[in-house]
Amino acid sequence: MSIIVHHSPQSRSTRLLWLLEELGADYRINYVSIRRMDGSGQADDANPHPLKQVPAIEVGGQLLIESTLLFPFLTDRFRIANLAPTPTHPRRAEYISWLGLYSGVLETVLSAGPPETWSPIQQQAYAELDRRWSAAIQNGGYILGNFSALDILFGSLLQWFRGAMPAGEPYDSYLERINQRPALARALQKDSPPA
Are the CB atoms for 17 and 29 separated by under 8 Å? Predict the structure, then answer.
């Protein structure tokens, strides 16, 4: 299965390159420009994403978008890499729930503004996520015990925005562990187009 990744350097699609490297997938990168949060960049007509964002992938002539949906799609396609519970695995519901926590809580709350502006419900959701995540990664662990696609998704947030979660342990050592992944190093080499 050949995959085309529509990718912009130093964006959310960088974590998708990391996932594809961990999966050992055959893929090709179409580098596109995007409009950045700081106002720089521009929409690229070569980007098929309906909002001109990234990531977007093409597989068999179909376009797929949104990181938290691309992750289970790809880990199900490349089961041999063992980066996520299979659809019939007893921990599948836990895996899917973590994906929901990422998109429905973590990114939503962090994009709502500084913590002092959060509603009591947002504060409670963030505190519960912190409790669950920090408990899972203590003592050298990963979210599901062994390294998984979830660690790419959640860990990539810490790589770009360490202030997303409380300072110190266990997040610092977790970040150090995931930064040692050879597949991450390969993905970062491909993050920008060759000069």
Answer: yes
